[in-house]
Amino acid sequence: MVEPVNSPLGKMLLEEISPVVMVLCTPLVEETFLKNGISFVETLKPFCNFSNIDVPVRTSSDQLYRLKKFTLRLFYASDIRQPNVEVAKQRLEHVITEAGQKDFQDLKSDPPLISDILSNPESEIAPTWFQYYNEELISTLSFSEHEAFDHPVACLLVVSSKDEEPINKFVDLFNTNRLPSLLNDGAMDPKILKHYLLVHDNQDATTERTSKVLSEMRSTFGNNECNLLCTNSSKEGNVEHQANPWASFKSSASATNKLGCVLTGDDIVEIKDLMQEFTSRHIIPYMEQKVRELNQQISATRKGFRNQIKNLWWRKGKDDGPETTKGPMYTFSSNESQIRILGDYAFMLHDYELALSSYRLISTDYKLDKAWKHYAGVQEMMGLAYFISDQSKKEAEYCMENAFSTYMKLGKSGFQNATRCGLWWAEMLKARDQHKEAASVYFRICGEEPLHAAVMLEQASYCFVLTKPPMLHKYGFHLVLSGDHYKNCDQVNHAIRTYRSALSVYKSTTWSHIKDHVYFHIGQWYAVVGMHDVAVRNMLKVLDCGYQSKATQEIFLRDFFDIVKKTGIKHEVVGLQLPIINISSLQVMYEDHRTYASQASALVEESVWQSLEDDIIPSLNSGKSNWLELQSKLLPKKYKESNVCVAGESVKVDLEFRNPLLISTSVTSVSLICELTANPDDLNLDKEPRSSSLGPESSTEHNLGTTSGFSSFTLSEVDFTLGGGEKKLVRLTVTPSEEGILKIAGVRWELSGSIVGVHYFQSVPVKAKSAKGRRKNKLTPTDALKFLVIKSLPRLEGSIDRLPEKLYAGDLRHLVLELKNKSEFPIKNLKMKISHPRFVSPGNHEEELTTEFPDCLKKGLEQNIVQRETNRTSSIFTFPKDVSLQGDRSLRWPLWLRAAIPGTISLYFTIYYEMENVSSVMKYRTLRMHYNLQVLPSLETSFEITPSPSRLQEFLVRMDIVNRANKDCFQIQQLSTVGCRWGISLLQSVDTILPSKSLLAGQALSCFFMIKDCRKSGTEEEETVSLPPSLTDVKLFTQDDDEKLFDIVNSPLASFHESERSCQGASDQSSPNTVDFILISRLAKSSDPSAVPNLPEILSHHSCHNNIRSSSPLSWSLDCPQTINHNFATSLCEIKLKLIIRNTSNGLSSVTIETIDCLPDTAAPTPSSGNQSGWRYVPSVTEEMKVTSDVMGSRLDKPPSSMESSPPFIWSGLSSTKVQIQPLSTAEIPLQISVFSPGIYNLSSFKLNWEISEHEKASLSASSGTCQGYPYYLTVLQSE
């Protein structure tokens, strides 16, 4: 902390509270000095500040001290008066306006950074004109009646040697009529020191007359009171002063060069000596003598206990009188005024102890007299004296607070004095590093005048930034308040300046609303001063204001476009935030040797396509290589990492635009920014010579023009409207027409026809489709947007007709693959690979469906469908060699589709084709096709095959069917065994199996058939007998007896069945005791046509590798009602069962029955979303529904998958029971289950462990074993 004397307040007090010299001069004196462009007083002012005057002074005590710093204030007699309020106000406004004009050029620069502001020294943080403004504000209170430091100490009478009768002029100058009114009214002492100065102009006055006049002066006024000043010694009048002492008095630079033009260096030295002598030999001794006299006088009348009692007695009763704002009037000769003069003189002579004692003495008198203005003035001086003498800080602040509060109590008449007191008080606190307290003082003196408040608020803001630590938010907030006040007073430059400084705080914060407020108003104000480009730049910052209200957004947008239109030009804005571009959504799609049939195909991961294409893409001579490795060998090293596209084929860029506002925004002329340059190395990739192609404007400039008129490439333009908060993915394309290097630099768009938004892609991550391959080196973001354009090539287009989006599991469809090549160059050697051969099977080109599908698949029409395997190798389908496409020709190839399993299935097709003599770089291309299928559950089947106990080659087949569809019903058409070994026949009539003709949604069905092994008796290796096709199929419908059965021997059912066999697999596929079944069904009716728009006509369900169970000594059946109604609201449902077991062997059998309560989910079951999974939902049961389950047999090793998720029920009887069953005898075992909720339950969770007697072991393959309970479905319904 600096010493108080050297602080800004100390320097201000030295200048403002200093002796006043009244100047009286004749017109000729002014004329003499105006030759230098300045008046007489202005000529002397630079030489009235003495930094080391070194004058000994003795005031109240006998101890001497020396004055070092001293200042005089010179005023014309006409200026010694109280300033006019309106004039002073205009002068202050002029100071602010002039400062704003000086700062105008700085407004064009970038706003300051908060780090730079904090790193500046304290003296450079606030604007320099604040000090000048504060001095002007203090000067508006000059020559107040209640203060004495503005009273003239001396009078300088100045006469020119050219004046007539100079002695009389001196006498006339101090005439009463010419003196200020304050001296004539008794407020100031007219008996002051007088000093006489004769001015001699060396240009046009004679020395003889001057000497004579000087002699007369000294004889008349005294030798010590008279001085001579010779000036204007330069004859040419062109003297230039390097350090011009008068530069601060004139603001114009041109006028500054003329100041003092006829004053030589000797003249300036003479002026300095004159003021030095006048101060040290006249002013200071006079004030010193005056202080001693006043001190003696006051000591005799006021000091001491007796004088104090007398003074109090004399003033007794004055405090009972009414208070007045002005208080009593005191003349210069009153005791109170004399004490005040003593204190002010002592203060100006730096005897602060004497000043304080005088102020304390008079303070009580003013308070008793209720002279509040005088009292506040004394308290103000006491606070300054405490500060400058570096005494009690507490006392200094108390006095300043007391003075400020007293001034404010006086109302409007005391506000200006309160303002001055506040300025000195704030400077006092700043000198002591109490910046936060200083800011509060500035805030208290804001007042109601907006311009004055603006300056005070701005000064307060700089106090907050100087606190430790800096209070940045308060700093920014007070700057904003100050800027608003400036704008209200039409001080736009200052408003911009304060808001710009506030930006340093708010632009890096999340305070979005105040940030928008600052940017918006800065933009408006820049437009007011005509700086429209800067205005637009700031207004752009508020366009991303989605958090604002809709009304505010409309105001922002309206004013923004108004400002833009006033400029009359289109503004190109890089990084425009309306709309906002989601860079992470940027996706580039292009085609090299890989082409795509649709957008969905291009979005598939490259690894998926690679796995399909590994077997069909040709390899190089050495090792296996893909096309990218081939490209790197054919291209020069510089371009081997480049993306390659084909001339005439579009490069597509997907980019998401988002409207951050709540109001609709129209975006027009959206296009890419591209450049297409010739290959600098004259790279000729093809055999045919060709010329290079330059970009639309030059080889280095981006294409910012329209899409027409450029032959090297074509750009698409998109117009769209974004609603409030809407996002839209926009596809932009560029189609190069010539070879070269294509670079996508960015995107551009227009708003309201006057703003062009530009966004560049140089430093953003890019998802580049067809640019991944197997490269080891990753492309940089810039390289991902750069393409090597090669010569135009043939491109195959493909589509699949009539491909549905939704199907039921088992749905069989006839489709057509259509391929086109619009190029004049032919393609050949076509091959196709399908990701899911289980779903899709290519047909034969010779197939011509003479009958409508699906009738073409029925027996008797199989000659139309011929299965050929000669053109198929592994999973690759090779088109005939004679297939070639060019021009407008198209190829239509049949495809068979079967929805094998439910779920969402992605089908991928890759078609490989070769081009001949077109390009040396690209010999082949691939067409990639992708389709998504949603396969809904339909019928789920399972089979159990049990040997007949009486017939060796006959087997009992139990087929369990569950309709897993949500709503639709299905009709069972046909059941067939695959191959010529097994014949099949019905055990029941068709009407008995399914009386309702349709299997309802959620309904389960069990039915039984007999199959016969048609091999000849003997060993397993003997050949089978070929059965007539009619014996391998059974019809399960009775609507039309003449309707033919479906042929499962030929394509496509046979080929799909082969795929199912390989996909379903089996634990022992080589076992001869397996049977394959194909169930054919139809959709009875659709309750929701929108679920599957194109209704299926035929569904095939394939069950492969069904094992025939080995013989067992036991057979059993479960005796139980199939449907039970129970009210679960009252209690759980207990159901009694009976297990009947027969021992079919000739020996004693020991059987243990174990019931199993362990289910997959032991927790409480949750309601199912439908009938597809879970059994909690109870479907509608019609009277026609009938489930048959009364045949004995053993169950498959693994229960159907649909049964594995049954809800819990518990066996509430014995968990384990052991019985002995005699040969060929039957035993009945009672069982019981407890059911907790309605549903359909599979009662197969029990095991039979058997063991036979010793003498029967030889006749059986095993002496013991375990039989799993077969499925038995029990329906439990909630009773009404």
Automatic annotation (TrEMBL):
InterPro entries: Ig_TPPC8_1st, Ig_TPPC8_2nd, Ig_TPPC8_C, TPR-like_helical_dom_sf, TRAPP_III_complex_Trs85. Residues 684-708 are annotated as: Disordered. It comes from the Eukaryota. Residues 606-759 form the TPPC8 first Ig-like domain. Residues 810-927 form the TPPC8 second Ig-like domain. Residues 1115-1247 form the TPPC8 C-terminal Ig-like domain. One of its GO terms (cellular component) is TRAPPIII protein complex. Residues 691-703 have a biased composition (Polar residues). This is Trafficking protein particle complex subunit 8. It comes from Arabis alpina.
